[in-house]
Specification:
Aminoglycoside 3'-phosphotransferase, Chain: A, domain 2; 14% strand; alpha+beta; single chain; 11 strands; 10 helices; 4-stranded antiparallel sheet; 287 residues
Length: 287
């Protein structure tokens, strides 16, 4: 979905900008029909939208209706243009940090504890990436040496035993997790950021959520997000800073593995050079 841009931001052709489910967009409502629901995506979305309508009105669409056969959620249509494909300037970055902070702090602890964990928590990502790193990499003979170096360094790093403890550690203060760093799901209306697409949401670790958005491919592949400036809006303890560094590395290595596999398919979803750029990003984080 690539709506027109009423705010005058420069837009670029977005790479890997797809919708997993079917959207019927009307003048005032959006109907989301789910193509799969084995991870309880419709319920997660409805539950999260309901909580945000109650505790953080205006941050996300209001839920209006839902059906079970087939699963669908009807919600209000909110104004704004996706940040993906744009240069995310200072005003948008400040608004993005404010939206994330509001998301993380809005829901009372008693209600957070009743939520399921977000999809793809750190322990599951760690296990999946380790499995992928143990497989032969689908690289061509002319693969950029940077990619080989990054995969080798990432494979060595991810075997470290301390990562098991880090991934298994439960946050002392959980937050409502978006579980999606894709800038396509952050809408800028010229004043503030609204959030859409909560099918993976749940109880989460704030530090993992920050790692998710700073290392999502959309932050640099077809957009420009100053991740250091974004993170500067959040107060972190020394322990949280160390945890964030490791979770950013994990997320970056996950993306390198996925992009390498994608490039080996008949119809890659991302342009040439994407894997090499991600490899450089991972090496920077590891060093």
């Amino acid at each position: 979905m690539t709506p027109s841009d009423p705010t005058g931001q420069q837009r670029r052709p977005p790479a890997d900008l797809t919708t997993t489910h079917t959207l019927a967009i009307g003048p005032t409502t959006v109907v989301k029909r789910y193509r799969s629901w084995d991870r309880d995506e419709p319920r997660r979305e409805w539950q999260t939208l309901t909580l945000l309508a109650r505790h953080a009105p205006g941050l996300a669409p209001r839920p209006l209706d839902r059906s079970a056969h087939p699963p669908a959620v009807t919600m209000e249509r909110v104004p704004g243009t996706p940040l993906r494909g744009t240069h995310v300037g200072p005003a948008q970055t400040t608004a993005l940090a404010a939206a994330l902070t509001r998301l993380h702090e809005a829901v009372p602890r008693t209600q957070l504890d009743a939520l399921p964990p977000r999809l793809w928590p750190p322990a599951l990502i760690l296990r999946g990436v380790r499995d992928q790193c143990a497989q032969p990499s689908p690289t061509a003979p002319d693969t950029d040496p940077t990619e080989q170096a990054a995969l080798s360094a990432g494979t060595a790093w991810i075997s470290a035993p301390h990562l098991d403890t880090l991934a298994a550690t439960e946050p002392t203060t959980p937050v409502l997790g978006f579980a999606d760093g894709n800038l396509a799901n952050y809408l800028w209306d010229g004043t503030r950021i609204r959030l859409v697409d909560f099918e993976s949401a749940g109880r989460a670790d704030r530090i993992h959520e920050l790692a998710e958005i700073t290392e999502h491919i959309s932050a640099w592949s077809d957009s420009e997000l100053d991740t250091d400036t974004l993170l500067g809006h959040f107060t972190l303890t020394p322990a949280e800073t160390r945890r964030l560094r490791e979770l950013r590395r994990l997320t970056a290595l996950m993306w390198l593995c996925m992009l390498t596999l994608d490039r080996a398919t008949a119809h890659p979803r991302n342009p040439p050079g994407t894997v090499t750029r991600q490899a450089r990003r991972l090496l920077h984080l590891l060093n």
